[in-house]
Design goal:
By secondary structure, this protein is an alpha+beta fold. The chain contains two helices and seven strands; from the N terminus they run βαββββββα.
Length: 136
């Protein structure tokens, strides 16, 4: 990331969503635009979920997940923080928008539920001030 920003999140997620995030998503062909991968950080007890464009490998979002009990054995988890690329090709990305896009991407690719969050209409990807012509 060239212009990363990090913000706390504190979003509780289910065991099922944790398993899906850890399993990730590997693109099967050029039509798959995203890659999701996980790396476990043994010293901190967290898991980094990397959400990147598959064609370029450019990471746009990183979720820092802390499994309950500090291990990866189950009983849910908490997304402690999100790091995102603030400059997406000249479009400035806010914290709120980055969280929505990370959720919508993982719901779409991994079928995550994120029960604590509302369903977002796909149109919100382009319905924020930074995406409007002449906004930047």
């Amino acid at each position: 990331m060239q212009e990363p920003a990090t913000a706390p999140w504190g979003l509780s997620i289910s065991d099922t969503d944790l398993r899906k995030l850890k399993a990730g998503f590997k693109p099967q062909d050029q039509d798959d635009k995203w890659r999701v991968s996980a790396t476990e950080q043994s010293q901190s007890g967290t898991i980094s979920i990397h959400i990147a464009r598959s064609g370029t490998g450019i990471e746009l979002y990183r979720l820092i997940v802390k499994p309950s009990g500090g291990d990866s054995s189950g009983s849910g988890a908490k997304i402690e923080a999100i790091t995102w690329e603030q400059n997406k090709g000249g479009i400035r990305m806010s914290e709120e928008q980055a969280k929505k896009e990370a959720v919508m991407t993982t719901r779409n690719l991994l079928n995550c539920d994120f029960e604590m969050l509302p369903e977002y209409d796909f149109s919100v990807i382009w319905d924020y001030p930074g995406a409007r012509l002449g906004a930047n």
